[in-house]
Design a protein that fits this description.
This protein is of the alpha/beta class. Helices cover about 60% and strands about 10% of the residues. The chain has three domains: about 1-130, Rossmann fold; about 135-195, Orthogonal Bundle (Helicase, Ruva Protein, domain 3); about 205-320, Zinc Finger, Delta Prime, domain 3, CATH 1.20.272. It starts with a strand and ends with a helix.
Amino acid sequence: MVIFLYGTDSYRMKQAIDQLINQYKEKHGPNADVFYTDFSEPGDDIIGAVEDQFKAVSFFDNKKILILKQAFGGGNGENVAELIKKRNLAEDKNTILIIAENGDAKELAKKSKKLWDLLSSKNIQTKEIEPLSGKKLESWLIKEAENLGLMLGPALAQELIAFAGEDAWRLSREVAKLAAYSRNKTLKSDDIKLLVRPKEDLNIFEFLDVLSSKNKAKALALLEERLASGDDPHYLISMIAYQLRNLVAVKDLADKAVPFSRMANLAGIHPFAAKKAFDCSRKFELQELKMLFSRLARLDRDIKNGDIKDEDGLYKFILEW
């Protein structure tokens, strides 16, 4: 049996894979064979390694489940398609092959039309997992909360989404935090306001993009816009520092030729944030980012020492860039 999962909601894709594995282990026992292969990881002969997994498991005649990730990229698509056809995996009752891909249909078909056409055929179970929004996202969030013993009605679910945004990874973490906090008591709106930090404003990346192009006039205009909207200057400084720290970490990994698929884990940030940081970091040199971060750290120290007002410090940061 072949199951093809694809889409851009990586958290719910992980949930779908975990659910399939749990169902498989419930049916065949906790020690059932489960193999993972990520084609984005370094390796000289990944297809050969997958073949070895089939051979080793077949020798013992066990049921098995194999999970292939990022099989479309790096020229691997045709080899994976040939493997599926050669072993007739779509009809194999003893093997469950799960192919999980981050990306939409157009992107994946462009990477490997042969594998896409094969996995889109009628005898393959295919499911697209796209980010949820609106009522569907609310329903999913309420169910997530119920699984953790947290009663989250529609009104509180909407408030949590308004605070945390629509990213499923972050919502899952915030629900877990709220469930731990509200154990044995009813969750209230004030609890969300207390525990959930408002979502990051991606205009910070726009601000850094403008800085990279040395466009001081536009950077000043963006700063004035944020201050006029009521943003606290120290909050802006902390957000810029946070994003610069991410940029330094991602740029350092990129300069060391670390595959993008590993950057989020190694940098200790969410994959979505890693992608934004990676795109923005291309416009800077590593030493340039380190210098900016160092300057901002000194500015923060001067503000705390009372040597300069926080709002004046932000203007100084831009004008001296």
